[in-house]
Specification:
The chain is built from 4 helices and 2 strands. By secondary structure, it is mainly alpha-helical. It has a two-stranded antiparallel sheet with strand order 1-2.
């Protein structure tokens, strides 16, 4: 079985954009780019370097490897079934991404298509979530699940 590793810098209100450079993502008038730099230190840099120096499947999208991308998705689907089957009545599983990478696009950069989101928990009905504005929906969903009063974003469980 593969090991799943995730690295994401996200604020509690769902801001993923603009971690590195002030001009990294200015869509929609976003002016807070580069916010993460001041929180980096030597230890964080070393840990991120260790994590990101290992070969990972993220290269399928960034390197235009559509067959590798498809194979990875098939393997993940098989693994996901076991994860979902192991969820208890109080568990919540959210699957999402911070950007899109179309492995068939000519560029190796982020392609900016919509990102996927799936919310899985016992008792939730299967339904299409539609287009949701912003990643703050993830924070709102987790807060709602934990019973925390939260007034930003849409709880995807509703």
């Amino acid at each position: 079985m593969r090991q799943v590793s995730a690295t994401l810098s996200i604020t509690l209100d769902g801001v993923v954009q603009g971690l590195g450079r002030p001009d990294e993502d200015t869509r929609g008038g976003f002016t807070y780019g580069g916010w993460g730099g001041r929180y980096n230190d030597q230890v964080m840099g070393m840990e991120m370097g260790k994590s990101m120096s290992k070969p990972t499947d993220m290269l399928f999208g960034h390197r235009n490897d559509a067959p590798g991308f498809a194979k990875c998705l098939e393997e993940f689907d098989k693994t996901l079934r076991g994860i979902v089957d192991g969820l208890g009545p109080e568990d919540l599983l959210i699957l999402t991404a911070d950007h899109g990478n179309d492995p068939t696009d000519v560029s190796t950069d982020h392609t900016r298509e919509y990102v996927p989101a799936a919310v899985i928990s016992q008792g939730l009905e299967d339904k299409a979530l539609g287009d949701i504005e912003g990643m703050m929906a993830v924070g709102a969903t987790v807060a709602g699940h934990l019973g925390v009063d939260w007034n930003r974003g849409i709880d995807l469980r509703r």
